[in-house]
Amino acid sequence: MKTKTTLKIISFAIAFALALAFVSLANKNFFKKKNPQAQEKIYNFLQKDRELDLEMYEKSKTADNGDEVLANWKYHKELKFKLNTADLPDDFRYAWEKRISSDINWINFFSYFRMSNPESVLKTDAQNELFEKIDYEYGQASREFDSVIKSYGIEYNDDGKLIKNNRNFAKKDLFFVIFTS
Predict the structure, then answer these.
(1) What band does 23 get if pLDDT is binned at 50, 70 and 90?
(2) For the whole model, what pTM was predicted?
(3) Cβ neighbours around 153 below 10 Å, total
(4) What is the pLDDT of residue 176?
């Protein structure tokens, strides 16, 4: 009886581990082929994006108050939203639009919040709940965007500068070759 029970437990553990492995594999895109042209286009696009960020930062340093800073941020985020993404991959465009939309939602929340609450203090549960929702969406969109650009071999370093990481890009391609041959 003990042997039967032990075998059942071991079988269950193995089946559970395999199920977890297959679920995580199903959620990854291993079939994205290495595309240096797409990587280069995304890299150049993100360089333009970074230039807009630096411009926004410089203008914000000279602003007289928080309202001017928020207006400057919103203006620059709307400029970024209008950047031409037509020749970029669909997954990148989707993640980009989601990220910029979440940035604009975050800025709109704080702009409205500053107008309706000069002390800038979250006073009610509803305000806290709304802030947590917007902050969660912002974080999720940023993580999704980072994941997409990483799949194209591009990352930001600790200083916010772009890095083309051809090694990681090639690893994904090697995985593709091994499992589709």
Answers:
(1) low
(2) 0.67
(3) 24
(4) 43
Q: What 3-state DSSP class applies to 123? A: coil
| CB < 8 Å & 24+ apart, contacts of 103-106 | 103/77, 103/138, 104/74, 104/77, 104/78, 105/134, 105/137, 105/138, 106/134, 106/135, 106/138
Question: Which residue in 75, 115, 80, 111 sits closest to 96, CA to CA?
Answer: 80
Q: Which amino acid is it at 15?
A: A
Long-range contacts of 169-177 (CB under 8 A, 24+ apart): 169/34, 169/39, 170/34, 172/30, 172/32, 172/34, 173/33, 173/34, 175/30, 176/30, 176/31, 176/32, 176/33
Six-digit token pair at 41? 């286009």
DSSP three-state, residue 124: coil
Residue closest to 45 by CA, chosen among 99, 105, 106: 99
- Neighbouring CB atoms inside 10 A of 118's CB total 7
Any idea where the domains of the chain sit in the sequence? 1-30, 34-180
86-143 pLDDT tens trace: 999 999 999 999 999 998 888 888 888 777 776 666 677 877 888 889 889 999 999 9
Partners of 155 in the beta sheet? 163
d(CA 77, CA 142): 14
d(CA 3, CA 61): 71
